[in-house]
Structure formats: C-alpha cells, structure tokens
Write a structure and sequence with these properties.
The chain has two domains: 224 residues, HUPs (Rossmann fold, 3-Layer(aba) Sandwich); 94 residues, Uridine Diphospho-n-acetylenolpyruvylglucosamine Reductase, domain 3, CATH 3.30.465.60. Strand 2, helix 2 and strand 3 form a beta-alpha-beta unit. It contains 13 helices and 13 strands. The longest helix is centred in the middle third of the chain and has 30 residues. Helix 1 crosses helix 7 and helix 9 packs across helix 11. The chain is an alpha/beta fold.
Length: 373
Amino acid sequence: MANSMPALDRSHIRPGDRICAAVSGGADSVALLLLLHATNSQPRNALGVGLSAVHVHHGLRVEEADGDLAFVESLCQRLEIPLHIHRADVPGRIAHARKRGQPETIEEAARAVRYAFFEQLIAEGHTDSMLTAHTLDDQAETVLMKLLRGAWTEGLSGIYPVVLVPHATHPGKILRPLLGARRAELEDYLRAHNQTWRTDSTNTDQAFTRNRVRHSVLPLLRGENPSIDQTLANLAELARDDEERWQSELSRILPQLLLPGQPVRGGGRGVSTAPGQSNSVALEIDRLRALDPALRRRVVRAAARQLGVRISFDETARLLILAGLSPKSDPAVVAHSSTTLQLAGQLRAQRSLRELRLFREAPPKDPRSAEPL
C-alpha cells in the first residue's frame, strides 16, 4: 500500500488552470506538491495545468524557518517548479494588534498573513487557484476543536473543500484536494519515493489547542471509535450541506423580516445618526413568533450578522427570552416596553411591545488607533 498514490481531488481543477500549492516543508504539503507534479507529468490523464508553489516565512522560529525555506527552494528547483516566497512579520502583527486592543494568537496571525498573501497572488493574476494540503486528520481536529468551543453548524462545517476568492478582475479559489487523505498515508507515499520533509518543532507543543487535540484527545476517542476521524469529517460534510440550505432560506426570507432603524411617529422608520448607535435593524415579534424555533433562532442570529456581530447560542437564547419567545421568558419583563440587553461586540438589544431591535454601539474613540502600522 505504501507505493499507492493518495487520492487527489481533481474535480475543481481544469486543464489550462494556473494552480499554486502552498508548501511549508511539512509532510502534507510536500506530498501535495509531489502528487501535483507527478499527476501533471503523467502521459495520460494529466492535469494539464500551470503549476507553481508558494512558501510563507512567518518570522517565527527564525533559524528553523530559514531551514524550511531553504528546503522548499531546493525541492522546487529539483522539480523545476516556480516558487513564490513571502516574508511576513507575525510577531510585529501581534504586537500592533495588542496595541489596538484586538489581540491575536500566533496561529490566528500566521493564518491571516498566509491567506492574505494567497489572495494577493490570485488578485495579481499569478494563479487561478491556491491549493493547501489539509487532510482528513486536519478536518477531524478542526471539527472537534470547533465543537469544544460551542460552534454552530457553520463552525462544524470545518475546512471547506472549496472557498471562492472574489475579485473584480481576477476571481479565484482556494482548494483543499487532500481532504479525503490521511496524514499517515501521505507520509507512506513520501517514504516510498525517498522524499524527506521538515518537522515543525512546535507541532508537539502542548500549549497549542490543536496539538492537545491531536496528541491527547483524538487518540483517546479512537479507543472508543476507531473511525472517529472519518465520523467527524462526515459531520463536517453534513454541516456544510445544512448550512448551505439554511443560507439559501435566509437569503429568501430575511428581506421580508428585517426592518431598518425604528418606527417614528406618523409612520415610516427612522435610522439613528446618534454617535452611540452606528446602525440598527429590527424584527417584528409577531412575525418571529410565527416561525418555527429553528428558523426563528437563525433569523435572530442573521440579524446580528447584519451588524457585523456573531452571537453565541446563549446570547441568541437571551434575545429570544427578551422577545418573549422562549419558555424561559419572564412575563413581567416582557410586559415592560423598554427592556434592553447588552451583548458582545458592542451589540445591544431593545424590545418594544411590537419589535425586537438590535443596534451596535460605536466603540469609544481611542487615540492609539491612529498609530501607523
């Protein structure tokens, strides 16, 4: 089995496409590059694409990262594959984010600079699709991490096989063609071809949630269900399909339910321009009451998203209680015509006799926000 070729999803790759593989130097990304090169070079049923690679040096683990870059450069030279190199300053990004009161973890900052550069390559016309080497193992880890954090179905959707990158002149895609492959399978493939890879020393650092899930939680779960990785990947696929269905329904129904601003005397609605309220939307309580519980919950969350805020399950429940649409609603509170609720992300809710109104407060002016990056 070691000599077999891992499954490569070609369904979103067309002859003539320009594709670019993200190569960190780790086993998964090296296997992706070799698989693409081998498939593109086969005499029959070749991909027929223009293949390049990209490597991002994050400015972390500097000596080790320099070695990763040198390894990827050597690999691409041997395979005669053009390589894009991007040097980022993740520590600097984290420091600036902290000054602005918007702290990022190392993983969040590294991912942000990585994907920003991927989208830049697409926007500048260097590639039509960026390919990353996420595997079924990565999918299982991601879904489990999202589940532990209390994610909704959009979170449980995990890693999407295809993500569209909109752009006025050069739209593109981010593809994950190895989501059906196991990490061990890719390592076997590399060993069968005498191909080495680099190992990130932080991959065993238990300070990172993913490493704890990978090395401690999932092995324990496999003792209960040896197929837990595939089970979690199946859950992600179900969640993606459900999410697509819900988004279609919300796109149809939201324009009929969302009301801007608040009612004004004499009819019509007014949109506040007060400094503390940047924008607002409202929902008629009677129309919410007519919806089934699943759709009602989705509509309330979608209303908050219109204001740029993602609310949690508990916050959604609090809004429904406030609106008198929950068994937990307090009749005394519901009878009061001006009850307000403070939520995350400067989001506030106010209930009148007829409406549930959401508005987002503008954050206080911080002179530090004017500091150059």
